[in-house]
Amino acid sequence: MLNLAFGAAVAAALHCVTPSALAQEVNSEADDLAEDTSQAQLLTTRLNDVITVLVGDVEAQAVFAPSFLAAVTPEQLAGLIQQLEQQFGKLEGVESVTPTGPYSANIALRFENAIGRGTMHLAPDGEHLVVGLLLSDFETLNDTPEAIEAELESLPGMVSVLYTPLDGWADPVIALNPDKQMAIGSTFKLYVLSALARRVAEGRNGWDQGVRLSVRSLPSGRMQNWPEQTPVTVATLAIMMISISDNTATDQLIDLIGRDTVEREVLASGHSQPDRMLPFLTTLELFALKGDEARGGLYAMANEEQQQDMLADLGRETGGDAANIIPPTFARPHAIDTLEWFASAQDVRGILERIKALDEPIARKILAVNPSVPGPMRDKWAYIGFKGGSEPGVLNLSWLLQDDTGEWHVLVMSWNNPEEDVDKQKFELLGLRIMGLARR
Questions:
Q1: Per-residue model confidence (pLDDT) at position 79
Q2: By C-alpha distance, which of 247, 269, 242, 280 is closest to 387?
């Protein structure tokens, strides 16, 4: 069927082409239309085939290319759909297929309580098996804070979540254990960023200031593999610290501005139990305490003054080099209630508010380098800043958000379980559902 735009174009062309030329043009357009229809049918058929795999009616090898299954096994596919159906209800079918090329399309799958949107790519030859499939955004249908809170409360261990306007102009959308002190992993790096940004504002440091690497921690990150004395800028260290949670960059910044500077920032942010955060540990110190169980146990029982002395001794022993510590090797939760960085959701809200309030924008831009949400969700906010943290049994996800009216919001999510590791994918999906709720 010709659309109106095509019909108008043909009518306008009647005055400037010969009948044979017009016939050739119409035939060409008809051929193109037939080809487009065929491609759309192929893509729709293949997406329906994907559904049959996801619901367990057909083997994955019949629909997905070997290259895809080498990266995502049939068992992982089954686990994925189980996870999605736990969050969004039963997978019901194809909602839409919009071709973006001969063998690619934007797709939407219909779940009982959500529409999942993403992309699909087919092999251009042979049986046109699926070589790429990505669901990156979920539009929830009839979701409620109460339903999400019930799912959060059902998770094993302890969960704390706060989703609220930042400036207090309305009640929180979700406030589940918002005052509970939780292990937050690398989200502690927000305090380092905020303290650094204030020193830059005071002229005591500069984003373009040169620094030579002199400390070395353990991953996450990359800078632990860089040569000693490599010159970098303060901005580079901050970007690496926040965007990929680089531990060496973090410890280098703490060394630059001083532990006491970060500790003052903890107090200035209004942390409700600063004794849980002080002395403010570097990543290398935490690794050393976790790796040496005897030393870690003594540290956990010591008072703050004794802990300061123990850290001074540790620093003299290690010289700021990860090669001189016993690295932790645990794969299960280990001392997450005593050896960690601790903050409540309200405490994290406080440090995010201080970063938002900075006059200069660089710290907020650094926080936005890795927003940790899929592309379609990014389009729903004017600004998204993110920092998260994890270790076995610990997960924190913290976002600073600005909507298109200029209002600021925060979403802080923490999950601790001392008995077993936590399910990061499930928690992230719950986070996306929360972001999809109506804002107050």
A1: 92
A2: 242
Shortest CA distance to 217 belongs to which of 194, 197, 198, 189?
189
Strand, coil or helix: 115: strand
Q: What is the CA radius of gyration of the chain?
A: 27
Burial (CB count <10 Å: 0-12, 13-18, 19+), residue 246: buried
Compute φ and ψ for 160, nearest 5 degrees: -135, 130
Instruction: State which residues of the chain have pLDDT below 50.
Output: 1-19, 21-34
Determine the residue type at 79.
G
Q: Which amino acid is at 352?
A: L
Counting DSSP H helices and E strands in the chain, the numbers are 16, 13
One DSSP character per residue, 257-283 reads H-HHHHHHHHHHTT-S-GGGT-S---H
> Letter for the amino acid at 338?
T
At 386, the amino acid letter reads F
Q: What are the start-end ranges of the E strands in 329-375?
A: 342-343
Res 36: pLDDT: 57
Burial of 140 (0-12, 13-18, 19+ CB in 10 A): buried
Q: What is the pLDDT of residue 8?
A: 30
Give the pLDDT confidence score for residue 428 in this predicted structure. Answer: 94
Determine the pLDDT at residue 440. 59
Cis peptide before 38 (omega within 30 of 0): no
Tokens 């019909």 — which residue? 7
- Tell me how far apart the alpha carbons of residues 397 and 404 are, in angstroms, rounded to a whole number: 22
81 touches 41 (CB < 8 A): no
Residue 177 region, left (φ>0) first, then alpha (ψ -120 to 50), else beta? left
pLDDT of residue 37: 65
Question: What is the DSSP secondary-structure string of 196-256?
Answer: HHHHHHTTSS-TT-EEE---B--SSSSGGGSPTT-EEEHHHHHHHHHHS--HHHHHHHHHH
At 328 the three-state DSSP class reads: coil
pLDDT digits (tens, 9 = 90+) for 337-354: 999 999 999 999 999 999
Residue corresponding to tokens 């570097």:
282
Structural domains present in the chain = 4-140 (no CATH), 145-435 (3.40.710.10)
Yes or no: say if 175 and 193 are a contact pair by the CB < 8 Å rule. Answer: no
Specify whether the CB–CB gap between 139 and 115 falls below 8 A. Answer: yes
Q: How far is CA 270 from CA 65, 261, 346, in A?
A: 54, 15, 9
Give per-residue pLDDT as tens, 375-392.
778 888 999 999 999 999
